[in-house]
Every structure is written in structure tokens, then in C-alpha cells.
Amino acid sequence: MSFGISASSLFAVVTTAASCGAVNAMHDSFTPLGGLVPLANMGLGEVIFGGVGAGLYGMLMFVVLTVFIAGLMVGRTPEYLGKKIEAREVKLATIAILLPSACILLFSALSVVLPAGLASRANAGPHGLSEILYAFASAAGNNGSAFAGLGANTPFYNTALGIVMLISRYWLAIPALAIAGSLVSKKKVPAGAGTLPTHTPLFIAWLIGVIVIVGALSFIPALGLGPIVEHLMVFGR
Fold it and tell me: Where are the domains of the chain?
């Protein structure tokens, strides 16, 4: 009501694509698909615009994974910045990418089966699930905004959200530093005919594709039970 649909929607998209918890409208009052977009932004882990520190190493984890996948697809040696990407780096990057998603989904699932989790909802059904998903996605994504429809100031949610924040934000520094240490210890390999260039538009397209596919495979089932089902219910389809 204060800023209008366009300004509120733009603010919501921008603030959830980075580590900014500021809002100019209550996301809980958005349409179902309007709430889906901020959820998807935070589920990708701050890599769209990037947050302070977390956005950078989150994107680098995706770069390592993309270099490995693209190298397998075209039969080229997976290298990044002149250093070979091997099984150790790929495993660490995979853990760093999948762990936040696992935390969001597992704790959301726990919240919808425990009375302490269900008691804080302002809405039942798919919208109530969206409120819970948003809370854990915001905690894991270092955002801080809320759907404003979930009473999160309870012992259960304070504890659960704190655990998700600890694992998804601080613990991820460990695999990131491990990858950095592993690459530093390797000798630099001169670029050759088999080196996959990482500064071309093609690699950028590969990187975006990997980010979208990983995010989609992780969250589409949960989003399907929340905002997507709610959208179909609202329009009677």
C-alpha cells in the first residue's frame, strides 16, 4: 500500500538476492508466486548479487563444480586458475553447495511434523509451509528477512534457526578454506590446448545453468507443496 506493487516487488527481489534483510513490504502478503521468488533467491545461497564473503565463496564453489562438469562433458582437463581440479576439490565443493539446502529442507520437514513447529504458523496449508520454508531459507542464506506470518521467537525456532545459521553460514568456511589450501599446494599448470577457458560467455552460460539446475533439483519439490500449490488453489485450477 505504501510503495505500490512494482516498487515492493523490486525491493523484495533485490533484498533476497543479497545478504540484506531489509523489506519495504510484508512478504507474507505477496501472491503465492510473488513469495516463491524471494524463496528461490535465498535458496541459491546469495550467489546472484553475492553477500559479504559468503556470496563470493558460494559462487566459487559453483565455479569448481562447473569446471569439473564442463570438463567431463567436453573431454577437457578440469582446471581453474592454472590448478587442476580433482576429486578432493569436487567433493568439498559438493558438500558446501548441498549442505545449506539439506539444512533448509530437513529442518522445514521437522517443523511441519512437530507441534512446536506448527504452533507458530499464522496460516495452515501450503501458505503455512511457505512461512516455514522462508524462515529457514532466510537463516541459511544469511538474509534476515521474514515472511512475517511465522512466530519465530519461540524456543523451538530460536534453536532450530540458530543451528541452521551456524551450519549453513559458518561451517561452510571449512570446505572453502580446505579447497583454497588444496589449490595453493598444487603446482601451476601452463594453459594448453586441453585447458577449458573460464573467461568466455560459454563458461558463464554453463555456470548459470549449473546454479539453476542445482537449485531447481533441490527446492522444486518443496516449492511445489508450498507456493505453487497455493497459486493453483487461489485460481481454482
Answer: 4-234
